[in-house]
């Protein structure tokens, strides 16, 4: 293995070790086996169906190690992003306040974890990253993380609730699950480390029957398909995750103890909370380093970590911000408008030989925040950022 390979390999083991330490703490602590009893009775349930998006591919010069880091991190938002959500107001995409209140409560539950992402309800669809519809019969789904901005048209739904949430015994858990997708988390039951061996025909029959009536392709995409080990964080499986479906008996052949089904305990699991805090730790805005023109600042980040800088221009002109060093980063510039951070520009150089670079006209007397998240340093050496 060459130097570059060694460096990446070390970074992956660091990331994995960090997540595994976390997981070790959890299994020693309060995390416990899922409920034995189905708290909701044996009523057939409806399940979330995620939209399919093209899988990201990389050029031949991107090593599998580097690709793994990029895939594990790239759907996550830059920490500190404010996600604005909008409810469709009329026609068959709209719903009453009782349903919207459950979705609002779902955002509140993630907010109460104490994370660096904030949420705000807006009434103008053009202002919203998250556009929520209630089209009956269309299932519950959400795009995953930054796919929310990349894939759908600007006035299309990014999330849907296709049945009456107020009559669903899972209550707020369905919105919390969909918002989990919006935050960048995939289905936990598709974790390749779960080691679930399905009775595939039973699974196709179960999800192909009412009330879900899924095609075999939909069932495969949402249940049977294993995510590549590149797409998941860490290596352990969390059957209590909010991102895990509940399964009744007769669908799982092995592990033996799940032949009678898997029933997550409901709500956010300890590991859900640790994972979301890993990617979105609470921000400490007071300590952000000031980025001065022509002075480079070292990033010194581990994969997945982020650094934030404040820019207070003393002249109004066009500026360039760029990273230096052989690294994959995502860099986003915000303007501070009365304490509200508004997106100005962003660049993501992951999987390329380029560096993240933003050019923008900055105004004297205004305040800007530059956020940089590292995917990987694919060669030895640190990464720096400079403004000029
Ligand atoms: Zn889902």
Inertia-based shape: globular
Mean pLDDT: 85
Which structural class matches the secondary elements? alpha/beta
Spatial order of the strands in the main sheet?
Answer: 2-1-3-5-4
Number of domains: 3
Main pleated-sheet profile:
5 strands, mixed
Radius of gyration: 22 Å
Polypeptide structure, described:
With 388 residues, the protein is of the alpha/beta class. It folds into three domains: 1-48 and 61-76 and 187-264, no CATH class; 78-183, Collagenase (Catalytic Domain) (3-Layer(aba) Sandwich), CATH 3.40.390.10; 285-387, Jelly Rolls, CATH 2.60.120. Helix content is 24%, strand content 21%. It is built from eight helices and 16 strands. It has helices at residues 3-28, 64-73, 97-111, 147-150, 173-182, 200-208, 216-224, 270-279, and strands spanning 82-87, 118-121, 130-133, 141-142, 159-160, 197-198, 252-254, 289-290, 297-298, 306-311, 317-324, 327-337, 340-348, 357-362, 367-377, 384-387. Helix 1 crosses helix 2 and helix 1 packs antiparallel against helix 8 (270-279). The chain is globular and about 65 Å long. The protein starts with a helix and ends with a strand. Bound molecules: zinc ion (ZN).
